[in-house]
Every structure is written in C-alpha cells, then in structure tokens.
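User: ok so my PI wants both of these folded by tonight, can you help

Assistant: No problem, let's get them done. Here's the first:
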Amino acid sequence: MRLIISRLMICALVAALTGVLPTTAPAQESLRIAAVVNDDVISAYDLAMRMRLTMITTRLPNTPEVRNRIGPPILRNLIDEKLMLQQAKEAGITIGQRAIDKAIAGLEQRNGMPPGGLDTFLQNAQIDKQTIVNQVKSSLAWARVVRRKFRQRIKVSDDEITETIARMEANKGKPEYRVSEIFLPVESTRREQEVRALAERLLSDIHNGGDFAALAQSFSKNASAQSGGDLGWVRQGDLDAEFEQVVSRLREGQVAGPLRSLTGFHLLQLVRKRADPGLGGGEEKVGLRQLYIGLPSDAGEQAVAQAMARAGELAAKATSCTLMDQLAPETGNDISGDMGTVELSGLPAPIRNVVQDLPIGQASKPLRSGGGVLVLMVCERSGKPDLGQVKKRIAGTLMEERMSTAARHYLRDLRRSAFVDVRI
C-alpha cells in the first residue's frame, strides 16, 4: 500500500482541516480529496468529521497540536474502512438500514442515551450523522466478511477447552486482573518507530485526561476495541510473563506501556484486581436501577462537577431499591429508574466493572457515562451458569481471539495489495 505521510503532509493536513472544524460547509469540503483507495475517495470533510468525533469522545482538546497527532492514524482508519467495504462488496455482502439502526440503538443503550439520543448528541456536537453511519456500516460489513472467510477454518478443540477449565480451577484464589488494552500492530520493521510514537502519544493523552475506552475504540486494532479495549478478567498465564509482571505492579486505574510484543505495541490499563474465583466466577444476571443526569455534549468541567455532586447527593439518599425508584423523578430524565434484569456480560465494560461486585441495595458512586452521570444499584442477582455454559463461553472467547488475529492479518494483506494515494 502506498501510504507515506511526511511531516510536511501532516502540517498541510492540519492547516487544511483547521477551518473545517466545524465551520466549512460540507458541500465545499466534500470536493477536496484526502485520499484515494483503489476506486473510492475519502474527502477532507470525511476526515474532519471523524477527527472531531474522536476528539469529543476521547475528551481531547481541539487544538492544532492534537489534530496534528490524531490526523494521520485516523486517516489510516478511514482507509481501512474503505478496504473493508470494498471487500464486502466483492463478496456480495450488503448492510441494510435495519442492521445499521439496530447497531446505533445498541450504541445509544451502551452509552446511557435514550432512543434518538445519538442524533441529539451529534447535532449538538456539529457532527454529520453519516460519520457514525459509515463507521457502523464498515464494522458490520467487515464482521460478516471475516465470519464468512474464516469461520469454517478456525476450530476450538475439546482438549483446549478442558485445559482452560483446568487452568481456571488451578488459579482459584490467586490474583486475577481486569485489564483493558490498546493494541497497535507493527506490520513491517519500517513502521516500528512510527507505531511506537503513536503509542507514546496515546499514553500521553491518557495521562492528560483522555478517555482510555474511547481511545481504544478509535485506535486499537484488536476485537476488544469495540468494547473500549476490555479484555475481561485475565488469569495467571493468560498474558505474556513480562506483561503479567507489569500489570501485577499497577494500581487500579493506572496505565502501563508502550509494551512491545512480537506483533506490536500495547497499552495496558488495570481496571480492577481480585482473587480468582475459578469456575465460580461465571457470568450472572442482575436486576438494575439507575439515576441518570444528562449533560450537553459541550459541557465544561464545572457542569460535569455539578452533575457529579448532584448525583452524589442522590446516591447518599438511595439506601434501597424502593428509594431509587422514588428518587428517579428528581433527575428529570426519563431513563432513570428500573433497567430490568440484564446479563452481566452484556453490559458495557465501565458499567459492568461497577456493578459486578456491588452489594445488593447499595448505590454506586457517581459514574461518568456517555452523555451524563449515572448512579447504579443492583436489586437482585441470579443465573450462575452451569459447566456447559462455561464451556460454551470459553469456546466463544478462544474463537473470537483467533478470528481477530486472522482478520488483522487479512486486512494487512489487503493494505499491501491496495492502491492508496494520500493527497492532503
């Protein structure tokens, strides 16, 4: 793939996009070409909108220095998405509007938004909705391409599942870590320093207040990116020995890296630490209540602090599920109240991390989530899985890991054979 972005081109990119965020009319900017990918075009407007979305969701400031940093990797992401859609088209795969709407509804739910809340968020942020639609469409299309190409080739044996179960039981009582990851592959020695520099910049952004999960969604190249980099609970032996030693020394919330593996660079965040429960640590269902205080997309630090303080006051009053229900109207938000019974594994990682060990009837601390602030309470727990469910989950996890690796290699090969002309 011919994709060489020099320092001069980066400066030109920043200069070209400075006025586009967000004042330049789409009709004018859409005529400017950022890159050509085989027979498809990425406009400067497409790039500007994705950069703006990334800065807002990751809480990075909209400054020339930040645009300078994130512009090239975001352009590469857009190029990858074009390659994904081209491969889907070649395979005869189409993504209908119903699938896109369902995916967007799921996105709203995971971010604590009411139905239609994403449209409001994008409008307030001055972001073209097509930016999200294009991203969702390429993700859905690529998942189908990969599934069709590799599903029958990749197998998980009963012996592998048995070995995993044995290791789970052997590790019972030992330290276990909830880890999130940003993974940046090194696909050639020529890009080694470039990828390391990106990893170091992302680490700097996190230390300066950038949101780890949002950065993972925007930049990480593992399947875990879709869930904000969440790798789940990692047992002894699941990570490389060097990585495990690093994670074991972290405090909750700390981030380590960049760490070099055979395939690329990793940033690792320790979310939580606990004693490994073995097979007893299976997924479960929880009955949830929530108090939700919404915030505008452009809320400043003072508005966020006020919302967090208000949520803290409500949490102090909420000493039971009944009181949670009674306090819901005080938030002035329709999505406060009973969330029903949900599978713990289906919750977004930040929410799952809060509620999985939360005692029944105890309000959580205020949690910044999506477009507002949440207070959560578990009102019931049920549904510990049997051994058959455990085996099924293990098989699914192993399959997902191998599919992710195969997909990454497949996309690398597509890049190498593609014609890519960067023009901005």
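One down. Here's the second:
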Amino acid sequence: MNEDSQKEKLFEAADALGQAITEIINTHLKTLGNRMAAMPVEPLVSKKEVAKHLGVQVRTVDNWIGRGYIPYYKVGRSVRFRLSDVQAHLDQRHRIDRGGSWRRRNSVN
C-alpha cells in the first residue's frame, strides 16, 4: 500500500469517526432538550407579590433584602424573586417557634 492510499484511508476513518461523534452528541442534545422542555419554569415575582405572599409590608421585604434574609435576583434596577427560593431559604435559615416561648417571654402578667 502506498502512502497516498494510507492517508486517504486515514482521512476516511477520521471522517467516519467525526460523523459518529456528531450523531451521538445530537442524540444526547435532543434527549436533554426534551427533558428541559418538560420542566416548568417558575415565574419571577415583584417585591409587592413577595410581601403579599409573606404577609408583610414592602418595606419589610426591602429590610430583609438588605439583611440577607431572603434571596433575590437583580436585573438592572429591577429586583425579582422566585417564591420557592424565598420560602426554602426562610425554612432552612430561620427558626419556627412552635413552643410558644415568644408568647411566654412577652406576656403581660
């Protein structure tokens, strides 16, 4: 076999390998795309909507942002929230007083 025919076979093999890799990648991308399309996207909400959801004033939401109590997204001058992120953050980082110790400490005797 001469050198030119060896080079030609090598180029053909490399081309076939490239096509096989491209096909595998495209198959995986389609599968991933189908999974991503099936995932619901939670909308981002405003400070007013977060305040209403949490039962507080908008100014309280501003204070909590400043203190790092709730996660938020800032896009330009606009501040937005994902309600599930806010709720999960509060659930993980802040205590829920189920024993009534606050009432005992602050009761009028």
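Residues 1-39 form one domain. Residues 1 and 7 are 10 Å apart (CA to CA). Good luck tonight!
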